[in-house]
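Q: What structure does this chain adopt?
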Amino acid sequence: MQKIFYPDIYVDSVLDIPLDCLRNTNITSLILDLDNTITEWNSNRLAPEIAAWISDTKNKGFKVCIVSNNNEKRVLGVAEVLDIPCVCRAGKPLARAFRRALAKLGATPHETAMVGDQIFTDILGGNLMGMITILVSPINKREFMGTRIMRQVEKLVLTRLPTRMEKDRPYPPSGPGKPG
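A:
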């Protein structure tokens, strides 16, 4: 049961995602969270290095989509700048959010990686769908009050994460619902 809360990969930033390794395991699509994954919380500003990384990711042949629980105006604004599709007011970790993104990408869960900064929305939802999951450290400590409360519970999961990843979920991941 606890495995659904553990990511396959844990990195500091999207800039550290091993795209070549993902490509070698037949991952062709990335679903990206918005707040504190590619932008600071409640900000439309994209750091130049993040925008360049997304452009490079697309140039390498990956399909990319934003899935966010945030409002349409904000999510669409960022998605339009990046020229990628998005799912707004997604309701993560519910499966419908991820199904909508997969439909926009024309992808299956087994060829998609979910990238986000929260265990109980991004990682849980991606794992339940059978996707590769990538946890990134939050860009900034400033965030929604509800997220700050959940971060306290996440700390319990994170304290066990390095051991779990080394022993139970080496990269590339395999097992029920996972490619590889």
